[in-house]
Design goal:
This protein folds into two domains: 197 residues, NAD(P)-binding Rossmann-like Domain (Rossmann fold); 234 residues, Rossmann fold, CATH 3.40.50.720. It is 42% helix and 14% strand. It has an eight-stranded mixed beta sheet, sandwiched between helices. The chain has a six-stranded parallel beta sheet with strand order 11-10-9-12-13-14. It binds uridine-5'-diphosphate-glucuronic acid.
């Protein structure tokens, strides 16, 4: 099939490369010339496991090309996927300007009477399909155009997106046209995954419902971690015991400093907004967002309880800046937010992240933050070590040796990567999230 992708962010670039790998002929359109030139040279604008190799492979096989040229790329695709960003606007709702402008361009360059399916992959609020259709028509003016709209939300996770695209749990396609549904089913039918064919509104809502549910799971276990701290229970044991119930499942039950990234915070908030617009007060989601905000504050409060609120005499080693492991992405990263709070209270920071240092530099600058190119370095002379991103390699460092380099053996583990007992045995004052044997016993048995 001939496929056009508009937008070369995570979703667009990965989808384009994967479709090409499946044998389709893909053109990826972006307005950013520099980005397009780089992609065509095999230089990726984002770090994503396996992406560079895949783009190089499909480009050399002649099935993948990035371009800034609207006309040729829109003429090219029988399927045109809109994959542009939908950042939150100031009110917390999704900003759809990029989506609508892409839709208008599609209308403008769509050839007369040639059937095309315009598919939204970007996460857009329920009902957006009607506006996409309208904007394609506005772009087309008086031209006679022949198209259907469809919704095909993307469930890939940053860091594992190529694997996810080939191993998805399900494919969701929504349309009011049987023809469009059949074409899209054809695209995905080789995958070993159920295909949910549904109406447009349901397809759009599935994405928000799924992300919000996963965020709810995280906020739930984070709330449980608070009860653990107050009762002497251990959140890891509680999560294990809960997660083995197949109806619950063990994934997304890791307590920590809260969820971040470019999806969960934005999507939970946008679903809450949509609910309000339809005069429904989705209180559970309000609670999910509040719990997420509070979780980070509870973590930082442990630091303030130990040192007071003036940290200006202290140097902290920090492991992790990305919003999760496996990515260089620092957008809405709770790690960055915690670092800002610590620095704001006067602390000097020495930071390492295996992939996100460049983005961290852009977010944090040089003021009281030094960047290390290896994990070991941040222990040296540190008054405390912070683990803020769940990179698995942070669990496997040579702690017995490394803590000897510290000024004080204190660890604040915001992702519960380490074992409190092992740390205690090394003479470390260990602070986790909802762990038994945490050095902070302020809440033990409900006593403050
Ligand atoms: C999320 C969804 O998992 C994808 O299915 C979806 O396609 C994507 O959003 C999207 O909407 O595009 P992603 O944002 O890449 O994917 O990251 P996740 O792996 O879901 O993690 C989100 C946040 O939750 C991270 O900050 C992570 O550290 C945190 N998290 C995750 C926890 O705190 N605990 C957990 O148990 C799991």
């Amino acid at each position: 099939m001939k496929i056009t992708i508009i937008g070369t962010g995570y979703v667009g670039l990965v989808s384009g490369a994967v479709f090409a790998d499946w044998g389709h002929n893909v053109m990826c359109l972006d307005i950013d010339k520099d980005k397009v030139d780089k992609i065509n040279k095999g230089i990726m604008p984002i770090y994503e496991e396996g992406l560079e190799e895949l783009v190089k492979k499909v480009s050399s096989e002649g099935r993948f090309k990035a371009t800034t040229d609207y006309k040729s790329s829109i003429e090219h695709g029988e399927l045109i996927f809109i994959c542009v960003g939908t950042p939150s606007n100031q009110a917390g709702a999704a900003n759809l300007n990029y989506v609508f402008s892409a839709a208008e361009s599609i209308g403008k360059y769509m050839p007369n009477d040639e059937y095309k399916v315009v598919i939204t992959k970007s996460t857009v609020p329920v009902g957006t399909h009607n506006k996409v259709r309208e904007h394609v028509r506005i772009g087309a003016g008086n031209k006679k155009i022949n198209f259907d709209v469809a919704s095909n939300p993307e469930f890939l996770r940053e860091g594992t997106s190529i694997y996810d695209a080939n191993n998805t749990d399900r494919v969701v396609i929504g349309s009011d046209s049987e023809k469009a549904l059949d074409i899209l089913e054809d695209l995905y039918k080789h995958l070993d995954a159920p295909i949910v064919k549904t109406d447009l509104a349901s397809a759009e809502l599935i994405k928000y419902a799924a992300n919000s549910f996963l965020a709810t799971k995280i906020s739930f276990i984070n709330e449980i971690s608070q009860i653990c701290e107050r009762t002497g229970a251990d959140v890891k044991s509680v999560a294990l015991g809960m997660g083995l119930d197949k109806r619950i499942g063990s994934r997304f039950l890791n307590a920590g400093i809260g969820y971040g990234g470019s999806c969960f915070p934005k999507d939970v908030e946008a679903l809450y907004r949509t609910s309000s617009e339809y005069f429904y007060d989705f209180r559970l989601l309000r609670g999910v967002m509040d719990a997420n905000e509070r979780q980070k504050d509870y973590f930082v409060d442990k630091v303030f309880r130990k040192y007071g609120t003036n940290l200006s005499e202290l140097t902290f080693g920090v492991l992790g800046a990305a919003f999760k492991n496996g990515t260089d992405d620092t957008r809405k990263s709770v790690a960055i937010s915690v670092i800002r709070t610590l620095r704001g209270a006067g602390a000097r920071i020495k930071l390492f992240d295996p992939a996100a240092l460049e983005n961290a530099k852009k977010e944090l600058g040089q003021d009281n933050v030094k960047y290390s190119d290896n994990a070991e370095d941040v222990f040296k002379k540190a008054d405390a070590l912070f683990i803020l991103t769940e990179w698995p390699e942070f669990a496997n460092l040579e702690y017995p040796e490394l803590v000897k380099d510290m000024n004080k053996k204190v660890i604040f583990d915001g992702r519960n990567l380490l074992d409190p007992i092992e740390m205690k045995d090394l003479g470390v004052e260990y602070y986790g999230v909802g762990r038994k044997d945490d050095a902070d016993d302020t809440h033990e048995n409900g006593v403050k």
